[in-house]
Amino acid sequence: MAYYRRIRDMREDHDLTQRQLAALLHMPQPQYNRYEQGLRDLPTTTLIALADIYHTSTDYLLGRTNDPKPPVSL
């Protein structure tokens, strides 16, 4: 699964609009929309912020794992 599909699904699962999420990320809604459409690559800082908002790992958002739980830190 492409990351842009996963970030859209996560937003919808958390009952957030693009406008609400863009506000949390301190960016305009059209900019966030381009990430969800796959028209722009996610900057690392935005990827990390999304993982923090959703309490998941960046690997999950990128589709590198299907386990949404973040790994346990040692």
UniProtKB/TrEMBL annotation:
Keyword DNA-binding: yes
HTH cro/C1-type domain location: 7-61
One Gene Ontology MF term: DNA binding
SMART domains: HTH_XRE
Pfam families the record matches: HTH_3
CDD domains: HTH_XRE
Alphabetical UniProt keywords: DNA-binding
PANTHER family referenced in this protein's UniProt entry, alphabetically: HTH-TYPE TRANSCRIPTIONAL REGULATOR ANSR, TRACRIPTIONAL REGULATORY PROTEIN-RELATED-RELATED
Full protein name: Helix-turn-helix transcriptional regulator
